[in-house]
């Protein structure tokens, strides 16, 4: 865990595979699929000038995801070296394409753990070099036709683990790619007590 902690501190992100088995992964897939009809677009999600004009990502949660969220608190603390508490967890749904516009997460996400719940989405592209930019600046960059949407460091979510990200500090996006069928990413957020 120390190597992962060092990587997270240095780069702002790290992948941690093998945190659970196939049975839990299958359970998350089943729950994410069952929760899809109840998904709604959150009113308080990250918004930039670009994302405000486009569709939001429908989100839902379920009891298995909530148990995983609580169960990963120790892992989140070990990775960050901070006293973190769970704030929220949700399945985010992508149907048709898997685009995520350039943004940082809300202040509730000192650490964001991400995994694919069902289907398959492309890698998240992280941008440590853009840390400190405002949401308006990120929106302007996203709106610039000359901005390279393939830029950033691509990070694939492990099938039985997480991609950990300093979510509200490190900007991230996913270039639009085809996403046939139902695809869901589980996001589990943690906030530092101090």
Summary keywords:
alpha+beta, six-stranded antiparallel sheet, globular
Describe this entry's structure for a reader.
The chain has 194 residues and is of the alpha+beta class. Helices cover 26% and strands 31% of the residues. It is built from five helices and ten strands, in the order H-E-H-E-H-H-E-E-E-E-H-E-E-E-E. Strands 1-8-5-10-3-2 form a six-stranded antiparallel beta sheet. A four-stranded antiparallel beta sheet has the order 4-9-6-7. The protein is globular. The chain starts with a helix and ends with a strand. 39% of the residues are buried. About 4% of the residues have low confidence.
What is the number of beta strands?
Answer: 10
Could you say which structural class the secondary elements and strand pairing correspond to? alpha+beta
Strand line-up in the sheet with most strands: 1-8-5-10-3-2
Mean pLDDT, as a whole number? 92
In helices, the fraction of residues equals 25-40%
**Counting H and I runs of at least 4 residues, what is the number of helices?**
5
Span between termini = 22 Å
Percent strand equals: 25-35%
N-to-C order of helices and strands = HEHEHHEEEEHEEEE
Identify the quaternary structure here: single chain
Q: State the low-pLDDT regions, or none.
A: 46-53
- Characterize the largest beta sheet: strand count, sense, and whether it forms a barrel: 6 strands, antiparallel
Rounded to an integer in angstroms, the radius of gyration calculated over CA atoms is: 16 Å
Form type: globular
